[in-house]
Amino acid sequence: MAAVLLGALGFILSDMIKALMDEDINFGYFSYVNVLLGVVVGWSLVGRRAGRGVTFAINNGFTGVIAMVMLGLFVQGSNEMLRLAMRNRYDSAFEAIISIVEHMMEYALVMSTVPIAVVVVLGGIIAGLCTEVAWHRWR
User: What is the pLDDT of residue 23?
Assistant: First the structure.
C-alpha cells in the first residue's frame, strides 16, 4: 500500500513540478524516476514501519514523503551534474560534487510553493494512515 501510494504521489508531484519549469525543458524519464523512487521509499521505509498506531502512522507517512523528496532532489541533481559533466563544464571532481548540492537547492527552490507543500504534507499523512489500515487489515 505504501509503495503504491508514494509512487502515485511521486507522479502527481512530478506533474506539478513540470508545470513550474520552463516549457522548452526535455524531462525525459523524470516522472518515471520519481515514481520508482516513491515505490522504493514506500516499500522499504514506510511499509516496513507500519503497525505501530495512528500517531506513528502519520509520522511514518510524513517521514516517507520527506525521504522521497530528498532522494528525488539528490537523483535529479546528480542527473543534471552528469549531463553537465559530459559537456566538460567542471574542472575537478570536487566541483562536480558541489554542483549536485547546488542543483538540489535550485530544484528545492522551484518546488517551494504552497500547492506542492500541501500535496507533500497531505499525501504523506494519507499514505501513512492508509498503510496503517492495510497493515491491520491484511497482516
Answer: 81
